[in-house]
Amino acid sequence: MEACCCNLEVDVNGEETFMVDKLGAVATLSYFMICVCSFQPIINLHLHSCETVITQYSNKFARLFGKSSGATGKLKVIFHDFPGGAEGFELMLKFSYNNGTADISPSNLFLACCAAEYMEMKEPVADVSNLLEQTEKSLQEISYWTWSDLLIGLKQCQSLLVPDSSVMVERCLDTIVGRLVLASEASPCPSTSSTDSSWVRYSCDSKSTESVKTSFSRLTWWFEDLLFLSPLLVAMLVKLMLSRKMDHVVISKFLLYYQKAKFSTATTHEKCKIIEMVIDMHYDMDLSCVPCKTLFGILRVTLGLNISKCSRNKLETMIGSQLDHATLDNLLVPSPYGISYLYDVNLILRFLKAFLRRGNGLVTPIRKVASLIDLYIAEIAPDPCLKTSKFLALATAIPDSARDSYDELYHAMDMYLEVHTQLSQEERLKICCGLNFEKLSPQACLHLSQNKKFPSKFAVQALISQQSKLKNLLHMTPSTSSYNDSPCNSSGAAQKGKKNKTSEQVVLYSSNFDISTDNEKLEAHLQGMQWRVMELEKFCRKMQIQMAKITKSKASGHSYAKSLPKLCS
């Protein structure tokens, strides 16, 4: 093949080379293959008066030819980042050699706009708008594009990947979001029964209409159409949706749908980028619209991925703020690789830290969390690899005021001590320090006093605590004088006399009430009080017997027995 004589050689992004003869006559566009290292086609162009044609439209070429006006031989220009590559360069040449006219459509608008911006094709030529101005005018009509045209344009924007396309991407995404807002207010695909209807401007293509009918609900018909977007563009799209006050529940569903669809073909690195984007976008939403179950689902997806620390912290913060809505199954997250114990205790501690940092002051949520953590501790207690420090950290992470009872925690400690028989006395003491004996039930205290796994010091301490509670309850029982002073009881008390004991007085005064309709609640209260006093007396006697046994069996513990106040009779 005979080589052509060219004055200018243009290498576009290493994809194709354009040979330009600035003195030759205008020729038709011809392609021929030559042997180059990349084996890509070289386009041979013979163009008439290159200096007076292409340079009048492109300021960048004008500067290049101006610098080489005195040079002889062949000139070579290399573009490393020409937007759209050879296709964009060819579109720019066609515009220049077609007297400043071009067939601009949604399929090439963004490509032409980026090429014009790159080649500095701004000033009008012979009263004819230059390429950049023409593309900007066409872009102003984007609100009239069909749904299909918007998708085509957005795909082209995404493929360009140049800074100059960011404004156009935002414009296209903004139009799409506006279309979705209108659709959510009306119907997924507005009726287009008449081609002259104004709704045609906001109509969806047939593919989207079909997906509405077959696969998607009224609010999610567009999910499938936007799966081609990169994580970066999805983030831009979601931010625009949030600014337009779109339903956060729908946005969350789209993100999860996108993540699930993309994961099937994504590499590990791509999966990290996708899930990080999903987490970051959820972090900007109203968390009341994002179920706790959804967040734990995202968490389980991240377990095998090395996502950024920032995204992981955001996810843990979101979960921690909703910890009162979690279940025990949610918390049973396996430990990361290299950790000996079964479940990820450190993760739960971070959840607790995030929850407590929220500090809304509400009693109900923190009590729910306290109950949940006690269940979790009981679940992980049999793990033989669980360190004492981790167990104690969980047991003491919840404020004392959040627990009404320590019975569940006591049973978890009992189980932990039963499995970890090798613990030293010091470690056992540390674990037992997490108990509040004042909030143990009488049954739990009785069990503890007989539990050989616990140090004897705490068995005695539990009994002392229960004795104190019993005495306080007995002191709170209404005395004889208080009832004798009551007008409605004076006659009944005089008839019965003053020889009865406290418990008998309760029975006496409750049975001799002259009950009216207004006093029925008082009678029920007194009957309940009578039953409670009798039960407490029985338990008090049991504790006296138990204390006697402890005193006899533990010679070394006689000092504790001596320190006990006298039990109630």
Question: What does the radius of gyration come to?
Answer: 41 Å
Number of strands: 5
| Strand residues, percent | under 5%
Classified in CATH, the superfamily of the domain at 6-38 and 45-141 is: Potassium Channel Kv1.1, Chain A
Structural class: mainly alpha
Level-2 CATH architecture of the domain at 6-38 and 45-141 = 2-Layer Sandwich
Give the CA-based shape.
elongated
Q: End-to-end distance, in Å?
A: 121 Å
Could you tell me the mean pLDDT?
76
Multimeric state: single chain
pLDDT < 50 runs, ≥5 residues: 1-6, 22-49, 188-203, 211-216, 479-518, 557-569
Number of helical runs?
Answer: 26
Main sheet overview = 5 strands, mixed
Here the CATH topology of the domain at 6-38 and 45-141 equals Potassium Channel Kv1.1, Chain A
Pfam family, one: NPH3
Organism: Glycine soja (Wild soybean)
Domain NPH3: 220-469
Protein name: BTB/POZ domain-containing protein isoform B
Model description:
With 569 residues, the protein is mainly alpha-helical. The chain has a domain at 6-38 and 45-141: Potassium Channel Kv1.1, Chain A (2-Layer Sandwich), CATH 3.30.710. 56% of the residues lie in helices and 4% in strands. It contains 26 helices and five strands. A five-stranded mixed sheet has the order 3-4-2-1-5. A hairpin with a 3-residue loop joins strand 1 (8-12) and strand 2. The longest helix is centred in the last third of the chain and has 34 residues, at 520-553. The radius of gyration is 41 Å and the shape is elongated. It starts with 7 loop residues before the first strand and ends in a 7-residue tail after the last helix. The model is unreliable at 1-6, 22-49, 188-203, 211-216, 479-518 and 557-569 (pLDDT under 50). Keywords: Ubl conjugation pathway.
